[in-house]
Design goal:
The protein is α/β, with parallel strands linked by helices and 86 residues long. Helices cover 49% and strands 15% of the residues. Strands 1-2-3 form a 3-stranded parallel sheet.
Amino acid sequence: MDKTKNRQIKIYLDVCCLNRPFDDQTQDTIRLESEAVLTILTRCQRREWQLIGSEVVDFEISHIPDNDRRQKTSVLAAITTFKVLQ
């Protein structure tokens, strides 16, 4: 029996990744990176993968100056299933 089939992929996205979907999407690179981040988050939301959070991510999000962006990024980060503590 292959034990790796039952292991769930664990993903850690830093705040730059979590912010990418809210950047200017007119540049192809930014749009493609945003799509990749949203695809990863969708798989995590479906519980196919696990999104790992951290106190550092929470701290950095809390210091995003734009309130709207901070709230949107917090929503994305909220789907974490496990948090690394300092």
